[in-house]
Prior knowledge:
This protein is an all-beta fold. The chain has a single domain, classed as Roll (10 Kd Chaperonin, Protein Cpn10, Chain O), CATH 2.30.33.40. The protein has no helices and 11 strands. It has strands at 9-10, 23-28, 32-35, 38-41, 48-56, 60-62, 65-67, 76-80, 85-88, 94-99, 105-106. Strands 1, 2, 5, 8, 9, 10 and 11 form a 7-stranded antiparallel beta sheet that branches. β6 and β7 form a beta hairpin. The model is unreliable at 1-8 and 10-14 (pLDDT under 50).
Amino acid sequence: MNNDGLTTSNQYSNDNYVALEDYVFVKEQKRTRTVGMMEIPDGIDMDYTFGTVVSVGPGTYENGKFHAPNVVPGDEVVFPRTVGSKINFVNNQELISVRACDLLAKKLVD
């Protein structure tokens, strides 16, 4: 629990880092596309990043109302490639820090 009495979710607590406010840590999923017989790796001509949420901040207060992010660890999400910051943690985990409002979609449970 933080000092506001709100909890945060974090699978990477061994690094002693948690997402703050409305930030979300996402582990990028590498994808490939097939065009004909050729495989095109992720990052070439792709405008969006796909990933799995690993840590979610508690949210923010705006105009006196609390707004919690509507994702939880384990959700698969999509966001523009141009947003977020890549962070390399001590355990060699590379995560992307993204504001919850920059997430475009999350995958519904099958």
